[in-house]
Batch of 3 targets.
Target 1
Amino acid sequence: MNDTTLKPSGVTSFQSDNLQRFIFDNAPVRGEWVHMQDSWQQVLTRREYPPAIQHLLGQMMAAAALLAATVKIKGRLVLQIKSAGPVDLMMVECTSDNTLRAFAQWDGHVADNATMVEVTGEGTLAITIEVEGAKQPYQGVVSLQGDSIAAVLETYFTQSEQLDTKIWLAADENAVAGLFLQQMPSEQHTKDEDEENWSRLSQLAATVTTSELLELGVGTLLHRLFHEEECRLLQATELTFACNCSRERVADTISLLGEKDAHDLLEEKGIIEAACEFCNEHYRFDKVDVAQIFSDVAPSSSDSSTLH
Ligand SMILES: [Zn+2]
């Protein structure tokens, strides 16, 4: 594979916005690689973030794609940070249609080189998996201890899934990327062999650098890390940014307010305005729009009355 050439920052010579699964023929270990450029740029054009928050949000976005690929469901996986630090809320969603969206809300000044703990304070990371049609979503919550999102997620996997998992995440203003390695249960090898394989592969993967994650395509990267292993690429998945908010949804919410409350709001503000946190799209409804919403709901009056 010849995607080794490092191009000037901002240009990738390989297929970005992709998630690639891989396995090892000689060990029960599964892996995933993700790299996103356009999808990440879509997030960044919608809101300007302090560098430290941008860094954390980018890593969360790469993590959401990696985690979503481990669960085979129809629905969505959401990573959400709630914290007492400058970041009030940080949220990334990845759907089974391979779309992602992300945003963060924060308060006050955040130093450019602030660490995760300085940005989040005493916070938690919730992992929510919503399966379409299911009554209750699955949710796991971990406290934000350790020095990175990757470390927090590794703890989560060890505690809740009891699967040894290693995650490496990287983000800059151009792209986000991640590498995921997980030991799978096996019957073909002894426990010692499994341990040895896991230890060897995770140590090889641990040599990965941030710039390798951000600048190399999957073929080159895996060759660099595992060239003496029997590593096999499985299917690749294309990822895109998408937000499912719409004017109709906002109109539905206004109609739920009821005609009186909606009119009170109009009297007060002159206009009803709602902004989508994820994509920063602003929806505005004036008197005419609101009247339209309730005329669609209420039984229609005769048009001919206006002629007299
Ligand atoms: Zn939106």
Target 2
Amino acid sequence: MFGFSIPKLLVLFLIILLVWYGFKLFERRDYLSKNKSKNPRRESDQEKSKFKKDEVEDLIKCPECGNYFSSGSSCTVCSSK
Ligand SMILES: [Zn+2]
């Protein structure tokens, strides 16, 4: 039984190794191609989110009317009245 199962296990191990190696190669190729196609989109996303974050950080809620205005200027609602 052992004489039969050990070669069988070896073949199985070899197949698993081959599949794993192939999967690794495929995953790496997929990762590289994804990275290539994602890079420009990712950069623009980062720029967008950074811009949004800066806008949110700059906004201040007016204690009088509740309007949001940028910290660089005064409340647009209160100053226009
Ligand atoms: Zn105001």
Target 3
Amino acid sequence: MSANDDPQFWAKARAHLVRYGGAFSPLIAESAAGNFFTDAGGRKILDFTSGQMSAILGHSHPEIVAVARHWIGELDHLYSTILSRPVVDLATLIAKISPGRLDRVLLVSTGGESNEAALRMAKLVTGRHEIVAMSRSWHGVTGGAAAATYSSSRKGYGPPAPGALVLPAPDTYRSRFIDANGVYDWRSELEFGFELIDRQSSGALAACIVEPILSSGGVLEPPEGYMAALAEKCRERDMQLIFDEAQTGLGRTGHLFACERDGVVPQYLTLSKTLGAGLPLAAMLTTPEIEDIAAERGFLFYTTHASDPLPAAVGLKVIEIILRDRLTERAALLGDRLKAGLLALQQRYDCIGDVRGRGLLLGLDLVKDRRTRAPDPDLAQRVARECLELGMMTSVVRGGFGIFRIAPPITIDVGEIDLGLEIFDRALARAVH
Ligand SMILES: Cc1ncc(COP(=O)(O)O)c(C=O)c1O
């Protein structure tokens, strides 16, 4: 019997844990360091998901460990109206590195919260309440964020916030909008989407929230020009634009912020997962003009962990390391190597319909048939199980697709990229035959 099968552990887990996201992985994690974690059997598992897409510097990075140790002993948590140096320094640094004039920063704990804050501020400042989001979005599970989330189940939880409107997510591989030359016609799709929005709207459009690359929706990368066109549609309607860079922010895509590729600066930008690199830290950024109006109107987003010093100190170190070690460039370079390796696998496995994404945020789309592009979720689950057996953690998106989203730490090295590719190769061979 493997140490991962410990009957007492699993009996207690079954008896006392809420099942918040389907089945738990069939192993017990004991420790993690660098780009691997170790299970109860002593097996080292390559972490191709960066934990929950967050551990961008790998696990237990020595400098992060040192900062966390220092601040837990120095200044951990305070009444939420009290400021400290790490908080003001982090807000200043985020304002400096972010695009445009997103100079006002709110520091909270989770991605859902940071989006909730942006949505609340957009409603307060515009005096309207309708929120447009993409049909394959994921912005969190709290009220407002969940109302704007369409790639998870919405069934059974009662009515979402009134005014939740949806745009077709730009899916370069499976869109129904194909022109006479067989090319994805995103302009017509966007036009059509806004035609429907305008018909549904009761005249209270407040904001549009969007991930620069829709990760949980299947690593959907909008074509170049799409975000600029979307921003224009928002401007025409006097709607505010929110970019959710929970997964794409801070280097993973080969830009410090993914929206830099698109040359679009939104009214709000949210950061979370990668900012704490595994610790709970999130930020909502906006312009001084917007923040001033919100403050005049008594903006309230008062949470227990707003402006906590310990996570802020960690966030400061995370950004310092990413800038100092040029990890954004590294993500671009190693992402190219990983993508080339996946494309080489596509040559050998008919079940790989599409390889897409940027930097170290890539998608591998498994299909039953390349002609029909019918997704193969069962095969993807078998491949994921084989990967875990062979020593690599992967993530398959929800929603009936067979799409892997591949997001290793951006501290990963060439040997570990090649190991990941080798494991994918062996897992595919086992699962297909
Ligand atoms: C793009 C995006 N935004 C927001 C969230 C929600 O973040 P959290 O789970 O920290 O609330 C997620 C989580 O997966 C995400 O992928």
